[in-house]
Structures are given as C-alpha cells and as structure tokens.
C-alpha cells in the first residue's frame, strides 16, 4: 500500500534559520513520483517540485533544496535562510506509475517563520 | 494568471441542497481531477476525468457525486444532496506537459 508520512506536524523557526521538512514514503512500485506542494494561508496549493524515482540527484532551486534518498524512502525538503513568507503548510505527495496523477498526500507540516 | 480557475471561491449551502463547483482550465487538456481537503486535514483524491469519462474514482466519490464537462470547457463537480461532512475545500487540477499537477485556487464549501 502507498503511504506518505510527514511526522512533523508543526515547526516554528525564526527568520534566517534553515529548516528541513521530513517526508517518508511507502510504495511497492519501482517507478513512482514524489511531489512537494506549499499551501499558504490563502489556501491554494502551489506546486514546488516533482521528482521521479529514477532521479536521485538532489535539487536546488533558490533557497529550496530537496534530498531524495531511496535507501531510506525519504524525500526531505530544506528551506535555507527562511523568511516570513515561507510560513505555510507543506505537503509531500506520492504517485505511482500506474496512475501518475493520482496523488497520495501526507498530512502536511505547518511551518511558522517568525520575524 | 492561474492556469485553472475555480468558481465559486466560497459557497455556503444548507444540508440536502445540490451544489455545483466549476473549473475552467486556461488551455485545452483532456485530463482533469478533483481533490478534496477537509479543513486542517490532508488533500484527498476524488476523481479523474479523461476524454469526457471518469477514469478513476476514490471511495469518497460515491453516488452523491458526479462530474461532467457540459460545454467542452467548464469541468464541473456536482454534489447532489450535501451532507455536513461534505464541508471542505475542493480543488480542481490539471496536468502540465512536464507531468506536473497544477491545482486551482479551490472552492470552499460550507454545509450548514
């Protein structure tokens, strides 16, 4: 069965701190996709990244970076030098090859960045 | 400009009433999706719609729910007789060429 676990319910940091959001997934498929979405207080879901299971290279996009490790079934997300605008709920999600657009979401991690 | 526009942004309805939520993608796509998020909880898949037919649906998507594309552009989710537990944010989504799933801004449904 597929499952996404985001063990951190809520994280609070002070601006400029680095913060890592954990994501652990379970799947029997060898081909799958991992996603991160940001949900700011306004409620929309903002796409951040999609990574397929064959690409284990870490990705960096500005202050955001992602660490994909198949050996530990983890896809962690790090925000460097956090800003107040980063305050949001962040969701990790998984989809499998058979239905790549049917996402299974984790329960989300609420990040609060204080000035 | 959002790639997917949803209306209404918020609807309040009485239990037992019918509700129609609408989604208008900016560009032509064949695949559409509806997801639901009960307040404070995770996002859940409801249904996928391909070429004017349901391709997959979840256990949540029971007989009270239906989807259609009535005029070739709007994509609607209908809840026939709303229940209190239908109160949630409903997201329409489409897939970009890169396989990225883009969500609309959501329609918040409140059932009283």
Structure description:
The complex is a heterodimer of chains A (115) and B (112). By secondary structure, chain A is an all-beta fold. Helices cover 0% and strands 57% of the residues of chain A. In chain A, the strands form three sheets. In chain A, strands 2, 5, 6, 10, 11 and 12 form a six-stranded mixed β-sheet that branches. In chain A, strands 3-9-8-7 form a four-stranded antiparallel β-sheet, with no helix packed on it. In chain A, strands 1-4 form a two-stranded antiparallel ribbon. The radius of gyration of chain A is 14 Å and the shape is globular. Chain A starts with a strand and ends with a strand. The model of chain A has no long low-confidence stretch (mean pLDDT 94). Chain B has 112 residues and is mostly beta strands. Chain B is built from no helices and eleven strands. In chain B, strands 2, 4, 5, 6, 9, 10 and 11 form a seven-stranded mixed β-sheet that branches. A four-stranded antiparallel β-sheet of chain B has the order 1-3-8-7, with no helix packed on it. In chain B, strand 7 and strand 8 form a beta hairpin. Chain B is globular and about 40 Å long. The model of chain B has no long low-confidence stretch (mean pLDDT 89).
Give a concise summary:
The complex is a heterodimer of chains A (115) and B (112). By secondary structure, chain A is an all-beta fold. Chain A is built from no helices and twelve strands.
Q: Can you tag this structure with a few keywords?
A:
heterodimer; A: 115 residues; 6-stranded mixed sheet; 4-stranded antiparallel sheet; B: 112 residues; mainly beta; 7-stranded mixed sheet; 0% helix
């Amino acid at each position: 069965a597929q499952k996404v676990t985001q063990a951190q319910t809520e994280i609070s940091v002070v601006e400029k701190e680095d913060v890592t959001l954990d994501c652990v997934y379970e799947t029997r498929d060898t081909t799958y996709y991992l996603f991160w979405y940001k949900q700011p207080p306004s409620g929309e879901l903002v796409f951040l990244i999609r990574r397929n299971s064959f690409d284990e290279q870490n990705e960096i996009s500005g202050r955001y970076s992602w660490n994909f490790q198949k050996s530990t079934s983890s896809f962690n997300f790090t925000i460097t030098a956090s800003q107040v605008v980063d305050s949001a709920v962040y969701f990790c999600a998984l989809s499998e090859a058979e239905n790549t657009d049917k996402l299974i979401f984790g329960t989300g991690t609420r990040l609060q960045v204080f000035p | 400009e959002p790639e997917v526009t949803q209306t209404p942004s918020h609807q309040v309805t009485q239990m037992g009433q019918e509700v129609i939520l609408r989604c208008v993608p900016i560009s032509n796509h064949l695949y559409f999706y509806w997801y639901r998020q009960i307040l404070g909880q995770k996002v859940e898949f409801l249904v996928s719609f391909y070429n004017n037919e349901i391709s997959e649906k979840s256990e949540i998507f029971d007989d009270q729910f239906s989807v259609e594309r009535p005029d070739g552009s709007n994509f609607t989710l209908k809840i026939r007789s709303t229940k209190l537990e239908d109160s949630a944010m409903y997201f329409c989504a489409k897939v970009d060429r890169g396989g990225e799933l883009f969500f609309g801004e959501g329609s918040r449904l409140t059932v009283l």
